[in-house]
Design brief:
The protein is mainly alpha-helical and 441 residues long. The chain has 21 helices and 3 strands.
Length: 441
């Protein structure tokens, strides 16, 4: 079992790396020293990268997710004996692997957050019948675009690390799948899943834990940023205002995945949302008074308490859809804790309606969309694009163009940009100011 967990697609016998290091340590080093990982510092989480030194970027978000995930892997490893037995390669929780997955889970996000992803996907679907999807792009980066010494195809991570990133174990686009893996990488991922004898549609425990910890960070850290920015006001008038509550309810009811997974249908959703926000306000008041009405300290304490609230409820149960498999979720009295899952979902929707849908954020996102579309238009013709793309991108395309079309190269190039770099290239192409040939990309 150890051998197939540490299996490398391009180095089966582990002869291309002579260092005396554990295989997962090699994965970690390859990942954090990659340009794609560094570029996360310039990609938006909620607020645009560069909006202020306080706010999270994709990089700091990924680091925070990795910390929660690593600690939870250690804790669960002590609680559940089967994790330390060779039951199945997908039913393990190695802290180092979960940490790697958390650090890599957002590599595929393009500039300008989710709006950037939507724009690229719309362009590809409308013009080429293809897809752009952040999780699929993770694999394109890890398995092809990034390079390491002695390899021209990706970072060649272990099977355990690759499958721990696999939140959506499906071929993107097949049978209407909106999230998954591109066809160019799916063959290798499917091979690894078959090698492990993974049940169809099931994720490894390491992938499940990474995904849940991502949700915990989103529903706590992003709200902290929103409070700091003044988008979320911790007052009774703001949190219990009927329009805000109605907007959160609307986000839930218009999200089919949430409605199905969390069984909202027969519940009074408005009442549940009101209760969560009311309790959130009461908790804030208590913390604020306890810490001498120090807003900064109280805000951090509030975030810490919510992370702890969610983390201490993580457990493992039998998968209700496949009893031979396991599911990582919030657990109470041996069964899935739907109340905590719904509370987290309400806080995620609160972050969405107060920040992402804020009109100022929408203005910036509209501006970002316009820039990305103009960048695409300037490069989509191959003859014109070859004149303005960096030479190393053109050389790589010429070497591998039998495997993917020109439009995928453009998607890869734009998706790899930071927010700042996307604006820089746009300015060079379309703004009135003149650039300099001595500026380096």
């Amino acid at each position: 079992m150890k051998s197939i967990r540490k299996y490398r697609l391009n180095d089966i016998d582990h002869i291309k790396s002579s260092e005396d290091r554990e295989e997962y340590e090699k994965d970690y080093a390859r990942l954090i020293q990659s340009p794609a990982f560094r570029r996360l510092q310039g990609k938006s989480q909620v607020f645009g990268a560069g909006s202020g030194d306080y706010y999270r970027t994709r990089l700091t978000h990924s680091i925070e997710v990795s910390q929660i995930a690593r600690e939870m892997a250690r804790k669960l490893g002590k609680q559940y004996a089967f994790l330390n037995q060779d039951v199945h390669p997908g039913l393990k929780l190695v802290p180092e692997v979960v940490e790697i997955a958390a650090l890599a889970h957002d590599l595929g996000h393009p500039p300008y957050g989710h709006r950037g992803e939507e724009v690229l996907n719309q362009i590809l679907q409308t013009k080429y019948g293809a897809h752009y999807e952040g999780n699929a792009q993770n694999y394109r980066i890890l398995m092809f675009l990034e390079k390491r010494a002695g390899s021209d195809r990706g970072l060649d991570l272990t099977a355990a690390s690759l499958l721990a990133v696999n939140k959506y174990p499906f071929l993107l686009g097949k049978d209407g799948q909106q999230k998954g893996v591109y066809e160019t990488e799916w063959e290798a991922i499917a091979f690894l899943r078959d090698l492990w004898n993974m049940p169809a549609g099931c994720r490894t425990l390491e992938a499940q834990l990474m995904d849940l910890c991502d949700d915990i960070a989103y529903s706590t850290h992003d709200i902290e940023d929103g409070i700091r920015a003044g988008k979320i006001q911790l007052t009774e008038d703001f949190l219990l205002e009927s329009r805000l509550i109605d907007n959160v309810v609307k986000e839930i009811t218009e999200d089919p995945a949430s409605m199905s997974a969390l069984h909202w249908a027969n519940l009074n959703i408005k009442q549940l949302v009101t209760e969560v926000l009311e309790n959130y306000y009461k908790q804030w008041k208590t913390i604020f008074d306890t810490f001498g009405r120090d807003i900064s300290r109280s805000r951090r304490e509030m975030k810490a308490q919510w992370v702890n609230h969610f983390a201490t409820r993580i457990g493992i149960i039998d998968d209700p859809h496949l009893p031979s498999w396991k599911k990582i979720t919030f657990v109470k009295d041996g069964v899935e804790d739907d109340d905590t899952l719904r509370t987290m979902e309400i806080l995620k929707k609160l972050a969405w309606v107060t920040m992402i849908k804020d009109f100022r954020v929408q203005r910036l996102q509209t501006r970002s969309e316009n820039m990305l579309r103009k960048l695409w238009e300037s490069m989509e013709d191959e003859a014109a694009g070859r004149l303005i793309l960096p030479s190393d991108w053109i050389e790589a395309y010429d070497q591998h163009k039998q495997h993917y079309p020109w439009y995928r190269l453009i998607a890869d190039y734009i998706a790899g940009m930071t927010d700042h770099y996307a604006e820089k290239v746009y300015t060079e192409l379309f703004a009135s100011r003149s650039g300099s040939i001595y500026e380096r990309d």
